[in-house]
Design goal:
extended; disordered C terminus; 17 helices; five-stranded mixed beta sheet; 653 residues; six-stranded antiparallel beta sheet; 23 strands; alpha/beta
């Protein structure tokens, strides 16, 4: 019994004794096996071991790595490797260093690559080469084509165009072969090259026989030549309408026996064939090439009012003279013309010098339909026809008066806003009593388009495109309708929609886009289309002869042999057309962007050099005459194109 109790006591005391021994056994240094403890797979207990490990974790990685088996020099190598790693980890990655203080070591070397990404994307790409492959060795035209490609590439890479954005395309119309391409599918600003697109759509939709009409309508005159009521002047958007045409219609009325008009002369702001009018749009009734003339003469006394006269003479002008006469000094006058109902208020201010004498100023009327009515009333008086009423607008105030006439009894009319150019629609029954008393028709459309393309007339181009939209879609003429018809027409004509993006008809502004490939495609199709090709060819300027290229190409082999459309805006210079004679006719387009205004002459000279190279190709390498290329700084163009900040070109009567 005593032996059993003793064994139990020893069994209980043995674990306690083992715990007292185990800490001493675990204090053995790393790398040395204990002499009296057998190996075991049991994990060491936590507690006493984790405290020294936690304290050591705060020490540098370099010191821990250098302790076991450290050799001389190991510490000096480990420390520099650890410091850049801790610096890179501490700094934010989103802020690149412009100048690294030391060379990156190991993996941190990948950081400069991340910095280089945006910089490389922002840099302009290297100038491209010719998109057209060189001809094969068996090509009979190899030498000619290679010479042309080398000359054109030399022009594009030259000191003038080498730093600019250039799009170029050259095609041989005889076989449809593309001879040269340089960014030919990049959309660029066409400037006035846009007029070629607009005039093409006009010919396709309106036809070669289209003419604008301007009409004078009203009641039929009685036996004594008296017209009881008002007469109305209405147009269809004719850009060529001039005051001489208004005079001719007045003369026709006098020849027809009209002697008296009891009503007024009213200008209608709506287009013939439409009851819709848009005040913000260009008025379909507008007399171009004429303006209100204001003559100011010094008064007799210093400080007094000068003498002011207005032409054409009409009671539609209300003069407000606030100017003064001075003895000497400069003449500084201001003239403002405002629409006041059915009349114009002409306000003259400033000072006029007696030493300087008479001053003549010209101002555009704020309401073209009203001014056209003023011109017609004046022309009727000159033709001997008495007009009892004033000039006015065919809107609400006029219709209320017309509705009281006996000839309009039984018809209902809507009234328009007072002093507005918006005319509400008339009832058909009222219009049926009116007759055409006088008529003016413009020249045919192909003749008018010569003014658009040869002289690059912006106003005419916009009116032609608006007419296309109104004739096809109906209603008032607007740019939006014209652009819609332009897109549809050119797509049906075969020009890919991806090659052009129109915004207007003149090319003013910087919203239009076209590619050099798109321009040459259009020119090639025009050349072979009998419906519109001959008319477009006739409308282009002839180099060294007329239009905007009349001062280009003189003294070169291209003179008289190039038909082209120019384009000039701020920082934009374009030239597209045809060059050559005989069996080799080339279609080309040269679009240039990014130059300064003072460099435009050099850019035009480079374009001339490129066209001359094409002409030499067409002449099978014939030698060029002296001074073929001309001076790079020579201004080859003094035409009527205007920059977008200068407004449309001035019209001639």
């Amino acid at each position: 019994m005593k032996k059993v109790v003793l064994l139990l006591v020893l069994a209980l005391a043995l674990p306690v004794h083992a715990k007292r021994i185990s800490p001493q056994k675990t204090r053995v240094k790393p790398g040395r096996a204990p002499a009296c403890v057998a190996p075991t797979t049991k994990k060491p207990t936590a507690g006493p071991q984790r405290r020294p490990m936690a304290r050591r974790a705060g020490k540098s990685v370099a010191k821990l790595a250098a302790k076991p088996g450290r050799k001389p020099g190991a510490r000096s190598v480990a420390k520099p490797a650890s410091k850049p790693a801790t610096r890179l980890a501490a700094k934010p990655t989103g802020k690149p260093q412009a100048r690294p203080s030391s060379k990156p070591v190991g993996k941190p070397a990948a950081r400069p690559l991340a910095q280089a990404g945006p910089r490389l994307a922002a840099r302009p790409s290297a100038p491209p080469g010719n998109e057209v492959a060189k001809p094969s060795a068996s090509d009979p035209e190899r030498e000619r084509i290679e010479t042309l490609q080398e000359e054109l590439e030399a022009v594009v890479r030259g000191k003038v165009l080498g730093r600019l954005r250039v799009g170029m395309r050259v095609e041989n119309l005889a076989n449809g072969r593309v001879l040269f391409g340089w960014r030919s599918h990049v959309p660029m600003d066409p400037a006035s090259n846009q007029k070629v697109l607009a005039t093409t759509a006009a010919l396709l939709r309106l036809g070669n026989r289209f003419r604008y009409r301007t009409e004078v309508t009203g009641p039929r005159p009685d036996g004594s030549g008296t017209i009881e009521g008002d007469i109305i002047l209405r147009g269809s958007g004719d850009p060529s309408l001039r005051s001489r045409h208004i005079d001719a219609m007045a003369a026709d009325l006098a020849t027809a026996g009209v002697t008296r008009v009891t009503g007024s002369v009213l200008g209608d702001p709506r287009r013939i064939g439409s009851d819709e009018s848009v005040p913000s749009a260009r008025a379909p009734l507008r007399v171009g090439g004429s303006a209100i003339e204001i003559r100011v003469r010094p008064g007799e006394k210093v400080g007094g009012r000068p003498q002011v006269s207005i032409r054409p003479a009409s009671d539609a002008f209300v003069l407000v003279n606030e100017a003064k006469t001075r003895q000497r000094g400069r003449t500084r006058l201001s003239v403002a013309i405002l629409r006041a109902g059915g009349r114009f208020q002409v306000k003259v201010g400033g000072k006029i010098s007696k030493a300087r004498g008479e001053a003549v100023l010209f101002r555009a009327p704020p309401s073209p339909p009203l001014y056209a009515a003023v011109l017609l009333r004046h022309a009727l008086a000159q033709a001997g026809i008495v007009v009892q009423g004033p000039a006015g607008i065919n809107s609400g105030e006029a219709r209320s008066r017309v509705a009281r006439d006996r000839m309009w009894e039984g018809h209902l009319f809507a009234l328009g806003q007072q002093g507005s150019d918006v005319a509400p629609p008339l009832e058909e029954g009222g219009q049926s009593r009116a007759e055409i008393l006088a008529l003016h028709e413009s020249d045919t459309l192909p003749v008018l388009l010569r003014r658009v393309n040869k002289n690059s007339d912006n106003e005419w181009a916009e009116r032609v495109l608006e007419t296309v939209g109104a004739e096809v879609l109906g209603g008032a003429p607007t740019t939006g309708k014209g652009v819609r018809v332009l897109r549809e027409s050119l797509a049906e004509f075969g020009l890919p929609p991806s090659e052009f993006s129109p915004a207007n008809g003149s090319g003013l502004g910087h919203r239009n886009r076209v590619t050099a490939a798109g321009m040459t495609t259009l020119l090639r199709r025009l050349y072979f289309d009998p419906r519109v090709g001959p008319e477009i060819m006739q409308s282009l300027s002839v180099g060294g002869v007329d239009g905007t290229t009349r001062n280009r190409f003189r003294g070169t082999s291209s003179a008289h042999r190039v038909r082209a459309k120019t384009g000039t805006l701020s920082g934009v210079s374009c030239l597209s057309g045809f060059v050559g004679d005989g069996r080799d006719i080339l279609a080309f387009s040269i679009l240039v962007e990014g130059h300064r205004k003072r460099a435009v002459s050099a850019v035009r000279a480079a374009q001339v050099s490129a066209v001359n190279a094409m002409m030499r190709f067409a002449q099978h390498g014939a030698s060029m005459p002296p001074a073929e290329e001309g001076a790079p700084g020579t201004d080859y163009e003094t035409g009527e194109e205007a920059d977008d900040d200068q407004g449309p070109a001035a019209e001639s009567p």
